[in-house]
Amino acid sequence: MKIFIKFAALAVTLAYGSIAGSAADAWKVIHAGTLLAVPGSGAKSEQSVLIKNNKIERIEAGYQTPAVPDGDKLEIIDLKGAFVMPGLMDMHVHLDLNGPDWTQSRNKDAEAAYDVLETIENARKTLEAGYTTVRNPGGRGYAVFAVRDAINKGGILGPRILAGGHTITASADDEYSGACSGVESCRAAVRRQIEMGADMIKIYATCSGSQPCGHGDARPVFLDDEMRAVIETAKTRQLTVAAHAHAIEGIKQALRLGVNSVEHSTFADAEAFELYVKNGIFMVPTVAVQDNVIRDYKKATDPAMRHVMENAISSHPEAVRGAYKAGVKIAAGSDAGVISHGDNANELIWYVNKVGMTPEDALVAATVRGAELIRKTDDFGTLEPGKFADIVAFSSSPLEKIEAVKAVSFVMKNGEIFVQK
Ligand SMILES: [Zn+2]
Does 169 share its domain with 275? Predict the structure, then answer.
Protein backbone atom coordinates (compact mmCIF):
# COMPACT_ATOMS: atom_id res chain seq x y z
CA MET A 1 0.00 0.00 0.00
CA LYS A 2 2.82 2.33 0.92
CA ILE A 3 4.40 1.79 -2.47
CA PHE A 4 1.11 2.37 -4.23
CA ILE A 5 0.58 5.70 -2.42
CA LYS A 6 4.09 6.86 -3.29
CA PHE A 7 3.50 5.93 -6.91
CA ALA A 8 0.20 7.82 -6.95
CA ALA A 9 1.88 10.91 -5.50
CA LEU A 10 4.57 10.72 -8.17
CA ALA A 11 1.93 10.42 -10.86
CA VAL A 12 0.19 13.55 -9.61
CA THR A 13 3.48 15.43 -9.51
CA LEU A 14 4.24 14.44 -13.09
CA ALA A 15 0.78 15.26 -14.29
CA TYR A 16 0.98 18.80 -12.95
CA GLY A 17 4.66 19.19 -13.75
CA SER A 18 5.20 20.70 -10.31
CA ILE A 19 8.33 20.54 -8.21
CA ALA A 20 8.52 18.13 -5.27
CA GLY A 21 7.26 19.12 -1.83
CA SER A 22 3.48 19.15 -2.07
CA ALA A 23 1.66 19.70 1.22
CA ALA A 24 1.58 16.61 3.42
CA ASP A 25 -1.71 14.80 3.83
CA ALA A 26 -3.23 14.42 7.27
CA TRP A 27 -4.11 10.82 8.07
CA LYS A 28 -6.25 9.58 10.91
CA VAL A 29 -7.31 6.06 11.76
CA ILE A 30 -10.22 5.37 14.07
CA HIS A 31 -10.13 2.08 15.95
CA ALA A 32 -13.85 1.45 16.38
CA GLY A 33 -15.03 -1.13 18.93
CA THR A 34 -18.34 -1.31 17.05
CA LEU A 35 -18.84 0.29 13.65
CA LEU A 36 -22.12 0.92 11.87
CA ALA A 37 -20.58 2.13 8.61
CA VAL A 38 -23.75 1.77 6.57
CA PRO A 39 -26.88 2.13 8.70
CA GLY A 40 -29.30 -0.55 7.61
CA SER A 41 -26.56 -3.09 6.92
CA GLY A 42 -25.72 -4.01 10.51
CA ALA A 43 -22.78 -3.20 12.77
CA LYS A 44 -19.38 -4.91 12.85
CA SER A 45 -16.95 -5.14 15.74
CA GLU A 46 -13.26 -4.15 15.77
CA GLN A 47 -12.95 -2.07 12.62
CA SER A 48 -10.50 0.58 11.43
CA VAL A 49 -11.67 3.68 9.56
CA LEU A 50 -8.84 5.37 7.67
CA ILE A 51 -9.33 9.06 6.94
CA LYS A 52 -7.23 11.08 4.53
CA ASN A 53 -7.64 14.81 5.16
CA ASN A 54 -11.42 15.29 5.17
CA LYS A 55 -12.59 12.08 3.49
CA ILE A 56 -12.91 8.38 4.20
CA GLU A 57 -10.08 6.51 2.51
CA ARG A 58 -11.04 2.96 3.44
CA ILE A 59 -12.41 0.69 6.14
CA GLU A 60 -10.68 -2.50 7.26
CA ALA A 61 -11.39 -5.28 9.71
CA GLY A 62 -9.31 -5.36 12.89
CA TYR A 63 -7.33 -2.59 14.51
CA GLN A 64 -4.90 -1.51 11.78
CA THR A 65 -2.04 0.96 11.81
CA PRO A 66 -1.64 1.61 8.10
CA ALA A 67 1.56 2.90 6.59
CA VAL A 68 1.37 6.43 5.22
CA PRO A 69 3.73 8.24 2.84
CA ASP A 70 7.03 9.46 4.30
CA GLY A 71 6.61 12.83 5.91
CA ASP A 72 2.85 12.40 6.47
CA LYS A 73 1.49 12.06 9.98
CA LEU A 74 -0.93 9.37 11.15
CA GLU A 75 -3.07 10.02 14.20
CA ILE A 76 -4.58 6.98 15.90
CA ILE A 77 -7.94 7.61 17.53
CA ASP A 78 -8.90 5.01 20.11
CA LEU A 79 -12.65 4.41 20.07
CA LYS A 80 -12.35 0.73 20.98
CA GLY A 81 -14.90 1.16 23.75
CA ALA A 82 -17.39 3.07 21.61
CA PHE A 83 -20.10 2.67 18.99
CA VAL A 84 -19.07 4.56 15.86
CA MET A 85 -21.31 5.63 12.96
CA PRO A 86 -21.85 8.37 10.35
CA GLY A 87 -22.56 11.85 11.69
CA LEU A 88 -26.25 12.35 12.43
CA MET A 89 -28.46 14.43 10.13
CA ASP A 90 -31.46 16.44 11.31
CA MET A 91 -33.72 17.55 8.47
CA HIS A 92 -35.78 20.02 10.47
CA VAL A 93 -34.17 22.50 12.84
CA HIS A 94 -34.67 26.20 13.50
CA LEU A 95 -31.27 27.40 14.65
CA ASP A 96 -32.53 30.96 15.06
CA LEU A 97 -35.41 29.99 17.36
CA ASN A 98 -35.26 29.25 21.05
CA GLY A 99 -38.74 28.02 21.84
CA PRO A 100 -40.79 29.92 24.36
CA ASP A 101 -37.85 32.07 25.54
CA TRP A 102 -37.77 33.89 22.24
CA THR A 103 -38.93 37.49 22.55
CA GLN A 104 -39.75 40.10 19.93
CA SER A 105 -39.19 43.05 22.20
CA ARG A 106 -36.13 44.43 20.45
CA ASN A 107 -36.06 46.73 17.45
CA LYS A 108 -35.51 45.10 14.05
CA ASP A 109 -31.74 45.66 13.81
CA ALA A 110 -31.11 44.50 17.35
CA GLU A 111 -33.27 41.44 16.72
CA ALA A 112 -31.33 40.53 13.59
CA ALA A 113 -28.03 40.84 15.48
CA TYR A 114 -29.38 38.83 18.39
CA ASP A 115 -30.59 36.14 15.97
CA VAL A 116 -27.03 35.70 14.71
CA LEU A 117 -25.69 35.25 18.24
CA GLU A 118 -28.39 32.74 19.10
CA THR A 119 -27.83 30.86 15.85
CA ILE A 120 -24.09 30.57 16.57
CA GLU A 121 -24.77 29.19 20.04
CA ASN A 122 -27.42 26.74 18.79
CA ALA A 123 -25.21 25.55 15.92
CA ARG A 124 -22.47 24.65 18.42
CA LYS A 125 -24.93 22.73 20.62
CA THR A 126 -26.19 20.85 17.56
CA LEU A 127 -22.72 19.78 16.46
CA GLU A 128 -21.82 18.72 19.99
CA ALA A 129 -24.95 16.54 20.02
CA GLY A 130 -23.47 14.54 17.13
CA TYR A 131 -25.33 16.27 14.28
CA THR A 132 -22.94 17.08 11.45
CA THR A 133 -25.57 18.10 8.86
CA VAL A 134 -28.87 19.89 9.38
CA ARG A 135 -31.56 21.37 7.22
CA ASN A 136 -33.05 24.63 8.48
CA PRO A 137 -36.40 24.96 6.73
CA GLY A 138 -37.71 28.44 7.37
CA GLY A 139 -35.88 31.07 9.36
CA ARG A 140 -37.08 34.13 11.24
CA GLY A 141 -34.65 36.27 9.29
CA TYR A 142 -31.46 35.57 7.42
CA ALA A 143 -29.14 34.92 10.38
CA VAL A 144 -28.87 31.26 9.47
CA PHE A 145 -27.39 32.13 6.06
CA ALA A 146 -24.62 34.17 7.72
CA VAL A 147 -23.85 31.47 10.25
CA ARG A 148 -23.94 28.75 7.57
CA ASP A 149 -21.36 30.65 5.53
CA ALA A 150 -19.17 31.38 8.57
CA ILE A 151 -19.19 27.68 9.54
CA ASN A 152 -18.20 26.72 6.00
CA LYS A 153 -15.28 29.15 6.13
CA GLY A 154 -14.15 27.48 9.33
CA GLY A 155 -14.44 30.28 11.86
CA ILE A 156 -17.43 29.04 13.83
CA LEU A 157 -18.40 25.63 15.25
CA GLY A 158 -21.49 24.05 13.82
CA PRO A 159 -22.95 21.47 11.47
CA ARG A 160 -23.18 21.77 7.72
CA ILE A 161 -26.38 23.76 7.19
CA LEU A 162 -28.90 23.76 4.35
CA ALA A 163 -30.97 26.86 4.91
CA GLY A 164 -34.41 27.70 3.61
CA GLY A 165 -34.78 31.45 4.12
CA HIS A 166 -38.25 32.75 4.91
CA THR A 167 -41.08 30.24 4.74
CA ILE A 168 -43.36 30.81 1.75
CA THR A 169 -46.68 31.76 3.33
CA ALA A 170 -50.13 32.36 1.83
CA SER A 171 -50.37 36.04 2.60
CA ALA A 172 -50.92 39.40 0.94
CA ASP A 173 -48.52 41.11 3.37
CA ASP A 174 -45.99 42.87 1.13
CA GLU A 175 -43.57 43.56 4.00
CA TYR A 176 -42.70 39.87 4.47
CA SER A 177 -40.34 38.38 1.89
CA GLY A 178 -41.99 34.94 2.05
CA ALA A 179 -45.52 36.28 1.45
CA CYS A 180 -47.19 34.80 -1.60
CA SER A 181 -50.62 35.46 -3.12
CA GLY A 182 -51.27 34.43 -6.70
CA VAL A 183 -48.94 32.74 -9.16
CA GLU A 184 -46.69 35.73 -9.98
CA SER A 185 -46.34 36.66 -6.35
CA CYS A 186 -45.50 33.07 -5.36
CA ARG A 187 -42.79 32.88 -8.00
CA ALA A 188 -41.36 36.16 -6.73
CA ALA A 189 -41.43 35.00 -3.10
CA VAL A 190 -39.37 31.93 -4.00
CA ARG A 191 -36.95 33.99 -6.09
CA ARG A 192 -36.42 36.37 -3.17
CA GLN A 193 -35.30 33.42 -1.01
CA ILE A 194 -33.04 32.13 -3.79
CA GLU A 195 -31.44 35.57 -4.17
CA MET A 196 -30.76 35.68 -0.42
CA GLY A 197 -28.97 32.33 -0.65
CA ALA A 198 -31.58 29.64 0.06
CA ASP A 199 -30.50 26.02 -0.36
CA MET A 200 -34.09 24.79 -0.23
CA ILE A 201 -37.61 26.23 -0.03
CA LYS A 202 -40.15 25.72 2.71
CA ILE A 203 -43.86 26.35 2.24
CA TYR A 204 -46.58 26.52 4.89
CA ALA A 205 -49.21 24.22 3.36
CA THR A 206 -51.39 24.45 6.48
CA CYS A 207 -51.64 26.55 9.63
CA SER A 208 -49.12 26.10 12.42
CA GLY A 209 -49.83 23.53 15.10
CA SER A 210 -49.82 26.34 17.65
CA GLN A 211 -52.82 28.06 16.00
CA PRO A 212 -56.50 27.15 16.42
CA CYS A 213 -56.60 26.50 12.63
CA GLY A 214 -53.90 23.82 13.11
CA HIS A 215 -56.53 21.12 13.60
CA GLY A 216 -56.79 18.05 11.43
CA ASP A 217 -59.79 19.09 9.36
CA ALA A 218 -58.56 22.58 8.42
CA ARG A 219 -58.63 23.48 4.72
CA PRO A 220 -55.38 23.96 2.78
CA VAL A 221 -54.23 27.59 2.85
CA PHE A 222 -52.83 27.64 -0.71
CA LEU A 223 -54.60 27.30 -4.02
CA ASP A 224 -53.14 24.59 -6.27
CA ASP A 225 -51.79 27.04 -8.84
CA GLU A 226 -49.91 28.95 -6.12
CA MET A 227 -48.28 25.87 -4.62
CA ARG A 228 -47.45 24.60 -8.09
CA ALA A 229 -45.76 27.94 -8.86
CA VAL A 230 -43.64 27.61 -5.71
CA ILE A 231 -42.54 24.08 -6.62
CA GLU A 232 -41.81 24.93 -10.26
CA THR A 233 -39.82 28.05 -9.37
CA ALA A 234 -37.73 26.14 -6.81
CA LYS A 235 -37.03 23.52 -9.49
CA THR A 236 -35.48 26.15 -11.79
CA ARG A 237 -32.55 26.15 -9.34
CA GLN A 238 -32.72 22.44 -8.46
CA LEU A 239 -33.93 23.31 -4.97
CA THR A 240 -36.08 20.90 -3.00
CA VAL A 241 -39.37 21.99 -1.44
CA ALA A 242 -40.43 21.07 2.08
CA ALA A 243 -44.09 21.50 2.93
CA HIS A 244 -45.07 22.14 6.51
CA ALA A 245 -48.42 20.35 6.90
CA HIS A 246 -50.58 19.16 9.77
CA ALA A 247 -54.14 18.91 8.40
CA ILE A 248 -54.88 16.01 6.09
CA GLU A 249 -56.09 17.97 3.04
CA GLY A 250 -52.95 20.16 3.08
CA ILE A 251 -50.75 17.07 3.38
CA LYS A 252 -52.47 15.48 0.37
CA GLN A 253 -52.30 18.65 -1.70
CA ALA A 254 -48.52 18.87 -1.14
CA LEU A 255 -48.08 15.15 -1.90
CA ARG A 256 -50.21 15.40 -5.04
CA LEU A 257 -48.39 18.47 -6.39
CA GLY A 258 -44.98 16.91 -5.81
CA VAL A 259 -43.02 18.55 -2.99
CA ASN A 260 -39.91 16.66 -1.85
CA SER A 261 -40.85 16.27 1.79
CA VAL A 262 -43.82 16.84 4.03
CA GLU A 263 -42.87 18.03 7.50
CA HIS A 264 -44.84 17.05 10.64
CA SER A 265 -47.65 15.15 8.84
CA THR A 266 -49.58 15.14 12.10
CA PHE A 267 -52.90 13.96 10.68
CA ALA A 268 -51.67 11.79 7.79
CA ASP A 269 -53.90 8.83 6.89
CA ALA A 270 -53.67 5.64 4.81
CA GLU A 271 -54.46 7.45 1.55
CA ALA A 272 -51.65 9.90 2.30
CA PHE A 273 -49.20 7.05 2.97
CA GLU A 274 -50.00 5.67 -0.48
CA LEU A 275 -49.28 9.05 -2.07
CA TYR A 276 -45.98 9.33 -0.17
CA VAL A 277 -44.86 5.95 -1.46
CA LYS A 278 -46.17 6.40 -5.00
CA ASN A 279 -44.56 9.84 -5.44
CA GLY A 280 -41.34 8.99 -3.55
CA ILE A 281 -41.85 11.79 -1.05
CA PHE A 282 -40.15 11.89 2.35
CA MET A 283 -41.91 12.32 5.67
CA VAL A 284 -40.00 14.43 8.21
CA PRO A 285 -42.06 13.67 11.31
CA THR A 286 -40.80 16.04 14.09
CA VAL A 287 -42.79 13.86 16.49
CA ALA A 288 -40.57 14.78 19.47
CA VAL A 289 -42.44 18.11 19.67
CA GLN A 290 -45.25 16.09 21.23
CA ASP A 291 -43.23 16.25 24.48
CA ASN A 292 -43.90 20.01 24.40
CA VAL A 293 -47.52 19.65 23.34
CA ILE A 294 -48.21 17.23 26.21
CA ARG A 295 -46.56 19.70 28.62
CA ASP A 296 -48.40 22.74 27.21
CA TYR A 297 -51.74 20.94 27.09
CA LYS A 298 -51.76 20.70 30.88
CA LYS A 299 -51.63 24.50 31.09
CA ALA A 300 -53.81 25.38 28.08
CA THR A 301 -57.15 27.05 28.78
CA ASP A 302 -58.41 28.09 25.31
CA PRO A 303 -60.91 25.38 24.23
CA ALA A 304 -59.99 25.67 20.53
CA MET A 305 -56.29 25.13 21.28
CA ARG A 306 -57.03 22.29 23.68
CA HIS A 307 -58.95 20.60 20.86
CA VAL A 308 -56.00 20.98 18.43
CA MET A 309 -53.53 19.69 21.04
CA GLU A 310 -55.63 16.68 22.10
CA ASN A 311 -55.93 15.57 18.49
CA ALA A 312 -52.25 16.10 17.77
CA ILE A 313 -51.13 14.14 20.84
CA SER A 314 -53.17 11.11 19.78
CA SER A 315 -52.77 11.37 16.00
CA HIS A 316 -49.12 12.30 15.43
CA PRO A 317 -47.34 9.16 16.72
CA GLU A 318 -50.09 7.10 15.06
CA ALA A 319 -49.46 8.84 11.72
CA VAL A 320 -45.71 8.17 11.88
CA ARG A 321 -46.33 4.56 12.90
CA GLY A 322 -48.69 4.08 9.96
CA ALA A 323 -46.20 5.65 7.57
CA TYR A 324 -43.39 3.44 8.83
CA LYS A 325 -45.51 0.32 8.36
CA ALA A 326 -46.59 1.46 4.89
CA GLY A 327 -42.96 1.86 3.77
CA VAL A 328 -42.88 5.66 3.58
CA LYS A 329 -39.32 7.04 3.48
CA ILE A 330 -38.82 8.73 6.85
CA ALA A 331 -36.02 11.29 7.27
CA ALA A 332 -35.46 12.32 10.89
CA GLY A 333 -36.27 15.90 11.77
CA SER A 334 -36.69 17.14 15.33
CA ASP A 335 -37.98 20.73 15.04
CA ALA A 336 -35.16 21.81 17.39
CA GLY A 337 -35.89 25.40 18.24
CA VAL A 338 -39.33 24.25 19.30
CA ILE A 339 -37.67 21.50 21.38
CA SER A 340 -34.28 22.44 22.88
CA HIS A 341 -31.23 22.64 20.63
CA GLY A 342 -28.94 19.72 21.40
CA ASP A 343 -31.91 17.48 22.21
CA ASN A 344 -32.32 16.62 18.52
CA ALA A 345 -31.88 12.90 19.18
CA ASN A 346 -35.07 12.85 21.29
CA GLU A 347 -36.72 12.37 17.90
CA LEU A 348 -34.94 9.03 17.42
CA ILE A 349 -35.93 7.91 20.92
CA TRP A 350 -39.55 8.68 20.00
CA TYR A 351 -39.24 6.61 16.81
CA VAL A 352 -38.21 3.54 18.75
CA ASN A 353 -40.18 3.88 21.98
CA LYS A 354 -43.46 5.33 20.70
CA VAL A 355 -43.59 4.73 16.94
CA GLY A 356 -42.23 1.19 16.95
CA MET A 357 -39.21 1.54 14.65
CA THR A 358 -36.26 -0.73 15.14
CA PRO A 359 -33.26 1.17 16.56
CA GLU A 360 -31.34 0.60 13.33
CA ASP A 361 -34.19 2.03 11.23
CA ALA A 362 -34.21 5.09 13.49
CA LEU A 363 -30.49 5.52 12.75
CA VAL A 364 -31.18 5.04 9.02
CA ALA A 365 -33.74 7.87 9.26
CA ALA A 366 -31.05 10.11 10.79
CA THR A 367 -28.34 9.32 8.22
CA VAL A 368 -29.09 7.55 4.93
CA ARG A 369 -32.56 9.06 4.46
CA GLY A 370 -31.32 12.55 5.27
CA ALA A 371 -28.63 12.25 2.61
CA GLU A 372 -31.22 11.01 0.12
CA LEU A 373 -33.59 13.87 0.90
CA ILE A 374 -30.92 16.53 0.34
CA ARG A 375 -29.61 14.58 -2.68
CA LYS A 376 -26.11 14.16 -1.26
CA THR A 377 -25.75 10.41 -1.09
CA ASP A 378 -22.27 10.63 -2.66
CA ASP A 379 -21.08 12.75 0.26
CA PHE A 380 -22.94 11.87 3.46
CA GLY A 381 -25.12 9.34 5.24
CA THR A 382 -22.71 6.38 5.37
CA LEU A 383 -19.01 5.80 6.04
CA GLU A 384 -17.64 4.60 2.71
CA PRO A 385 -14.58 5.51 0.66
CA GLY A 386 -14.83 8.98 -0.90
CA LYS A 387 -17.46 10.32 1.48
CA PHE A 388 -16.84 13.13 3.93
CA ALA A 389 -15.40 12.10 7.28
CA ASP A 390 -18.44 13.10 9.34
CA ILE A 391 -18.37 10.64 12.23
CA VAL A 392 -20.02 10.35 15.62
CA ALA A 393 -19.43 7.91 18.49
CA PHE A 394 -21.48 6.99 21.53
CA SER A 395 -20.26 5.40 24.74
CA SER A 396 -22.70 2.49 24.32
CA SER A 397 -24.70 0.95 21.48
CA PRO A 398 -27.94 2.67 20.41
CA LEU A 399 -28.82 -0.59 18.63
CA GLU A 400 -29.25 -2.13 22.08
CA LYS A 401 -30.78 0.87 23.80
CA ILE A 402 -31.72 3.84 21.60
CA GLU A 403 -31.19 6.30 24.49
CA ALA A 404 -27.45 5.85 23.86
CA VAL A 405 -27.79 8.41 21.03
CA LYS A 406 -27.70 11.06 23.75
CA ALA A 407 -24.34 9.82 25.14
CA VAL A 408 -22.09 11.40 22.49
CA SER A 409 -18.40 10.78 23.14
CA PHE A 410 -16.84 11.83 19.83
CA VAL A 411 -17.74 14.11 16.92
CA MET A 412 -15.74 14.57 13.73
CA LYS A 413 -16.88 16.79 10.88
CA ASN A 414 -15.00 17.06 7.61
CA GLY A 415 -12.09 15.13 9.14
CA GLU A 416 -11.75 17.52 12.07
CA ILE A 417 -12.41 16.45 15.66
CA PHE A 418 -14.81 18.65 17.63
CA VAL A 419 -15.72 16.40 20.58
CA GLN A 420 -13.50 13.75 22.16
CA LYS A 421 -14.39 12.57 25.64
ZN1 LIG B 1 -40.42 23.64 12.21
Answer: yes
Centroid of ligand 1 to alpha carbon of 262 (angstroms): 11
C-alpha 175 – ligand 1 centre gap (Å):
22
Band (44; pLDDT cuts 50, 70, 90) = very high
pLDDT digits (tens, 9 = 90+) for 156-168: 999 999 999 999 9
The rounded Å distance from CA 83 to ligand 1 centre is 30
Number of structural domains the chain divides into: 2
- Report how far apart the first and last C-alpha atoms of the chain are (Å, whole number): 32
> Residue 51: CB partners within 8 Å, gap ≥ 6?
27, 28, 29, 30, 57, 389, 412, 415
Measured in Å, residue 191 CA sits from the centre of ligand 1 at 21
- What is the domain-level CATH number for residue 353? 3.20.20.140
Regarding whether 97 and 231 lie in a shared domain, the answer is: yes
Query: In terms of domains, do 287 and 306 share one?
Result: yes
* Ligand 1 centroid – CA 338 distance (Å): 7
Q: How far is the CA of 288 from the centre of ligand 1 (A)?
A: 11
Q: Determine the distance separating the centroid of ligand 1 and the alpha carbon of 92, expressed in angstroms.
A: 6
Q: If you measure from the C-alpha of residue 168 to the centroid of ligand 1, how many angstroms do you get, rounded to a whole number?
A: 13
Residue 208 or 306, more confident: 306
Domain check: are 70 and 113 in the same one? no
Which residue from 151, 148, 226 is spatially nearest to 182, judged by alpha carbons? 226
Give the pLDDT confidence of 114-133 residue by residue, as tens digits.
889 999 999 999 999 999 99
